[in-house]
Amino acid sequence: MSQTQAGWGAGASPRYEDLAARFRPVFARVRATAVERDRAHRLPHAEIDWLKETGFTALRLGQDQGGSDASLPELFNLLIELSAADSNVTNALRAHFGFTEDTLCSPSPDWRARWLGRIGDRQTVGSGVSETGEAKVGQFDTVLHRRGADWLLGGTKFYTTGSLFADWIHVSAQDEAGEPVVALVPRRAKGVAVLDDWDGFGQALTASGTARFADVHLPAELINPTPERFPYAMAFFQLVHLATLAGIGRAASDDVARLVSERTRVYSHGNAGRTRDDPQILQVVGHVRGAAYAAGAVVLKAAEALQRSHDARRAGRNEEADAAASLADVEVNQGVTVVTSLILDATTTLFDALGASAVKEGLGLDRYWRNARTIASHNPRIYRERTVGAFAVNGAAPPRQYRVGSA
Question: Locate the Acyl-CoA dehydrogenase C-terminal domain: which residues (predicted)?
Answer without folding.
Answer: 240-378
